[in-house]
Write a structure and sequence with these properties.
The complex is a heterodimer of chains A (about 110) and B (about 110).
Chain A (H helix, E strand, L loop, with lengths): L4 E3 L2 E4 L5 E6 L6 E8 L3 E9 L2 E5 L6 E5 L5 E5 L8 E8 L8 E2 L3 E5 L1
Parallel strand pairs in A: 2-11
Antiparallel strand pairs in A: 1-3, 3-8, 4-5, 4-9, 5-6, 7-8, 9-10, 9-11
Chain B lengths: L2 E5 L2 E5 L4 E8 L5 E7 L5 E7 L5 E3 L5 E5 L4 E6 L8 E8 L8 E2 L3 E6 L1
Parallel strand pairs in B: 2-11
Antiparallel strand pairs in B: 1-3, 3-8, 4-5, 4-9, 6-7, 7-8, 9-10, 9-11
Classes of the chains: A mainly beta (about 110), B mainly beta (about 110).
């Protein structure tokens, strides 16, 4: 069974631009969570989607948003990029019956210049 | 709020030596607990998990961890380190109920010396 896939793997953007990252969960997984990983703050929860609905949201500004499609694929969007948004963005998916057991993709490395 | 503390941001061991990575959680209600490993330029791989039942859990690659409620700990061990174990390890917790958010420790970088 294929794992969680994330595209693109690497991205370079300029301050003020916006970016969209994509995540395809493991087949049969309907919950998708997003995390931001930085050297300073570590791994921080962004938000979680299940059946196209956002169920949980972390403590991030409104510039960070996401959505989930009917096939469980998810996207996250960051608008008006800041230098501090440079990070590894990780997506994780889980089964409906085991939402606590999350499987991670390889991440998208975003660099903001 | 849930918090996870990993003692030691960097642990160095010799090949063949015992690996011990420490993790403590803060919660009045025992959460579900996890260890993940991250190799350079990769995502997180689930090593093992504790949900309910047996307090000693075995994971992949010869790792195991013991849940100790009285000590609020979930330390990760491996009897004999291998060069391929060099990576960063993260302890994480998730509360029960409707909270699907993983709370991570800061991570421990494991170095294995030949």
């Amino acid at each position: 069974k294929a794992g969680v896939t994330q595209t693109p793997r690497y991205l370079i953007k300029t301050r003020g631009q916006q970016v969209t990252l994509s995540c395809s969960p493991i087949s049969g997984h309907r919950s998708v969570s997003w995390y931001q990983q930085t050297p300073g703050q570590g791994l921080q929860f962004l938000f979680e989607y299940f059946s196209e609905t956002q169920r949980n949201k972390g403590n991030f500004p409104g510039r960070f948003s996401g959505r989930q499609f009917s096939n469980s694929r998810s996207e996250m969007n960051v608008s008006t990029l800041e230098l501090g948004d440079s990070a590894l963005y990780l997506c994780a998916s889980s089964l409906p019956s085991k939402t606590y057991e999350q499987y991670f993709g390889p991440g998208t490395r975003l660099t903001v210049t | 709020a849930q918090s996870v503390t990993q003692l030691g941001s960097h642990v160095s061991v010799s090949e063949g030596a015992l690996v011990l990575l420490r993790c403590n959680y803060s919660s009045s209600v025992p959460p579900y607990l996890f260890w993940y490993v991250q190799y350079p330029n990769q995502g997180l791989q689930l090593l093992l998990k504790y949900t309910t039942g047996a307090t000693l859990v075995k994971g992949i690659n010869g790792f195991e961890a013991e849940f100790k409620k009285s000590e609020t700990s979930f330390h990760l061990t491996k009897p004999s380190a291998h060069m391929s174990d060099a990576a960063e390890y993260f302890c994480a917790a998730i509360s029960g109920g409707s909270n699907y958010k993983l709370t991570f420790g800061k991570g421990t970088l494991l170095t294995v010396n030949p």
